[in-house]
Design goal:
Layout (H helix, E strand, L loop, with lengths): L1 H22 L16 H15 L14
Length: 68
């Protein structure tokens, strides 16, 4: 029971931290773009490209999809 409570508290804390960083425009935590201005596929590609760029200096062998 204690583990479940800890997990819930941890997730809630992470959501609060993400919201805090997003509101302040911290790099990597940009505000969400309105759905009407960008398609789901464009958003997905942007997210994938951002993740690739952020970890470009890290050896992710074995952790990434082979076509990336």
């Amino acid at each position: 029971m204690a583990e479940e409570n800890f997990c819930l508290k941890r997730i809630e804390h992470l959501i609060q931290v993400k919201s805090h960083l997003t509101e302040r425009g911290i790099a990597g935590f940009s505000r969400p773009v309105a759905c009407s201005t960008i398609s789901h596929e464009e958003a997905k590609r942007t997210k994938e490209n951002t993740m690739i760029a952020e970890f470009s200096s890290v050896d992710l062998t074995g952790f990434t999809h082979p076509d990336h």
